[in-house]
User: What shape does this take?
Amino acid sequence: MAFLLDPPTTAPTEPPNVLRLLLHPDPLRPWIEDWETAAQVLIARAQREGPNGAPDERTATLIAEVLAYPGVPGHTVASIDEDPPPVLALSFVKNGVRSSWFTTITTFGTAQDITLQDLRIESFFSADYETEAFAGTLAD
Assistant: This one.
């Protein structure tokens, strides 16, 4: 996502967080097509993250923070009875370049180790040939 981020004016005080980056008005929101739909899916996903749909205190604090950002759809409430979409599609447009991605999150559903239970691996994949070629130019 570095190609979407403008150089920060100050050093970050904590590790980057995808919810903050995507939902805050500044870093990535201006470049996201269909931002409101993406925001709803992201918030519902975060609300579902805790056991039985009850986020831990840290997650609940993060959700409250991002819901307070201007323009964030606050009516989203995750239902534990609904299956989340298996992927989240995101398209970005910046400086006339459009790139389309889909993201998945891998979890360990029956983890035998408490540290694996909380592990989530998010992967972004190009959603079309144009984005794949664009990603290749970034790698070069």
In short: Residues 16-139 form one domain. The mean pLDDT is 80. DSSP finds five helices and three strands in the chain. The longest strand covers residues 97-107.
